[in-house]
Amino acid sequence: MSGSQRKATIHKLIVFSFILLVHLGVAVLSFLMQAHPVASTLYACVISNTSYTVGRQNPMTGLFCTTDGGKEWHHLGWENGRPFSMALDPSSKPPTIYLAAGNGVLKSADGGATWAIKTGWEITEVQKVTIDPKDPKILYIATPYGIWKSSDAGESWIRKTRGLKEVRDTFITSVIVDRTKTSRVLISTENGVFESRKGGDFWRPIGLQNKRVRRMIDNPRNPRELIAGTEDNGVFRS
Fold first, then answer.
1. Average pLDDT of the segment spanning 25-41
2. 113-137 pLDDT, tens per residue?
3. How many CB atoms are closer than 10 A to CB 111?
4. Cβ 125 vs Cβ 101: under 8 Å
């Protein structure tokens, strides 16, 4: 895959993710508000479909949160950010927040008051960040250039692509950690869905091969149920 093709695919992924998240956001909001009708905090990652232009008023993008069911929203962190997704560690007080963004992984250890980039120049266009539900120091990130793992809360990263043989295998759009067995990790790619049973040390294909999977999520109430959205072949459920 050439550089121009990879950039075009990233753009398609952003558009697809926006459309999918608009629909999923309603469901997630409903679920959170039903579970915690008063105290819920809802976060939203906002990006713009126009390029940033110096000298004009650009739309506000980045991370927003609301604590009153969406009546008022507050911006957290850097203005004009480009976050694709976020992950929250609720075990820390205040909560630790990770953002998967165009310029890498951003981390806030104080609930969004201050931020730091936790990745180097080689990690960009991060599509998804996921926290191990049993060990919050373990993180996985999906990028168009492979999957990376951190075992120290983002201080260092190791690329984990053993078993991903083709270039399109390493264009990763989502990463899910099995909540019932956290050594099992699933990723969606330009060439279907892959599984690792050893915390990312080795990957094997398990479905939807030769299909461009743009996003994959698991059911919050049933971790065995997966939904995958593809670019040209519709939505699949397992």
1. 40
2. 999 999 999 999 999 999 999 999 9
3. 16
4. no
Mean pLDDT computed over 73-99: 87
Contact 182, 196 (CB under 8 A): no
CB 177 within 8 A of CB 150: no
The whole-angstrom distance between residue 152's C-alpha and the CA centroid of its chain comes to 19
Q: Which amino acid is at 51?
A: S
In this prediction, residues 107-113 reach a mean pLDDT of 92
d(CA 110, CA 107): 9
Does 6 score more than 90 pLDDT?
Answer: no
DSSP letter assigned to residue 122: T
Distance, in Å, from the CA atom of 18 to the CA atom of 167, rounded to the nearest integer, reads 25
pTM of the model: 0.81
Are β-strands 62-66 and 74-76 bridged in parallel, bridged antiparallel, or unpaired? antiparallel
Token pair, residue 166, equals 């083709």
Structure tokens at 199: 């915390």
Classify residue 179 as exposed, middle or buried by CB count within 10 Å of its CB (0-12, 13-18, 19+): middle
Give the whole-angstrom CA distance, residue 169 versus residue 188. 9
Strands ordered across the beta sheet of 213-219? 213-219, 222-230, 235-237
Strand order across the 62-66 sheet: 42-46, 62-66, 74-76
